[in-house]
Amino acid sequence: MSRCYLQLTLADRRRLHQLVERKVPVNEMARRLGRHRSTIYREIRRNTFHDRELPEYSGYYSTVANDIAKDRRQRLRKLRRHPQLRDLVIDRLQASWSPEQIAGRLWADGLTLVRICAETIYRFVYGKEDYGLGLYRYLPEARRKRRPRGSRKPRDSVFPGAYKVSQRPDFIEDRSQFGHWEGDLLIFRRDMGPANLTSLVERKSRYTVMIKNQSRHSRPIMDKIIEAFSPLPAFARQSFTFDRGTEFAGFRALEDGIGARSWFCDPSAPWQKGAVENTNKRIRRFMPGETDLTAVSQHDLIQLARQLNDQPRKCLGYRTPAEVFLTHLQDGA
């Protein structure tokens, strides 16, 4: 018998009605339907029709039982039974809270005695009855249709173990060798369009490069990096460290295009590329998430990068990233 429980269908209830009419023992009913006997007991007890005025018409009828079960499932939806809780959830969704944040905070604050989970909120957002509210627009991914649970493809095949950051040589980790970079993608508000920018930081000098992209597709992003770094000598572009975002799945193009090796952080470990994460915070001072990137040109990004690269840094002995970068280029190492 399968361990995965499935709700009884109308066809199952029709067969069960026939067995009830013939007064077949419950254990036999369960065997024929491929269900546990407790499921059959519960189904008959909960979905039998009772008529107090005409008791002779009481009994288990397949279509009636199916309607009773459907009605019960709709009534049990917490966000329909509790309108105040429903309003709280809608209010926080519109404030761009995630379902997990909403569920956790409502319980932590004690605003409601009814506990809900993130899955309840997702079902409310994508359910037929409330889909017209368009609440999916406020979710982190803003998907019109919900992706089936468990459908995310594992990325181990995209980012092989040989490219893990733990396999990176020590001279990259301790910043003793020049020419090793970290990269990330900065995303802006979706309603401003798909444009984004790649931020890249050389680990030893903290020199920053910013590249504007028109989409999150991996190959165009890699092509832009190749175009920007091709003029540099090979020793100045030896490797790149990224996270496991799909926008970096085309990393092999860097090997073919400019001979640069790629390394990838462990899942949910952005601190393993701390240099670019720190730089992103600096960039966000001038380009917050609500920036309309369509009004920002590549020339504007070059000017901002120049401003960042001309600021003295304590970790560089108060030299600027531009000064350190140029020194290494001139020294050839």
Structure, described:
With 333 residues, this protein is of the alpha/beta class. It folds into 3 domains: 10-74, no CATH class; 78-138, no CATH class; 161-331, 2-Layer Sandwich (Nucleotidyltransferase, domain 5). It contains 14 helices and 5 strands. The chain has helices spanning 10-21, 26-33, 37-47, 62-75, 78-81, 83-94, 99-109, 118-126, 170-173, 218-229, 252-258, 274-286, 298-309, 321-331; strands at residues 180-186, 196-202, 208-213, 239-242, 261-264. The chain is elongated and about 100 Å long.
Percent of residues in helices comes to: 40-55%
Mean pLDDT: 88
- Tertiary shape: elongated
Low-confidence segments = none
Could you give me the name of the CATH homologous superfamily of the largest domain? Ribonuclease H-like superfamily/Ribonuclease H
Order of helices and strands: HHHHHHHHHEEEHEHEHHH
Sheet/helix structural class? alpha/beta
Number of strands: 5
* Largest sheet, spatial ordering of strands: 3-2-1-4-5
The largest sheet, given as strand count, sense and whether it forms a barrel, is:
5 strands, mixed
Task: Quote the CATH topology of the largest domain.
Answer: Nucleotidyltransferase, domain 5
What is the CATH architecture term of the largest domain?
2-Layer Sandwich
**Oligomeric state of shown chains:** single chain
User: How many H/I helices?
Assistant: 14
CATH class of the largest domain: Alpha Beta
Q: What is the straight-line distance between the termini?
A: 66 Å
Give Rg in angstroms. Answer: 30 Å
Strand content: 5-15%
Domain Integrase catalytic: 165-329
Protein name: Integrase catalytic region
Keywords: DNA recombination, Plasmid
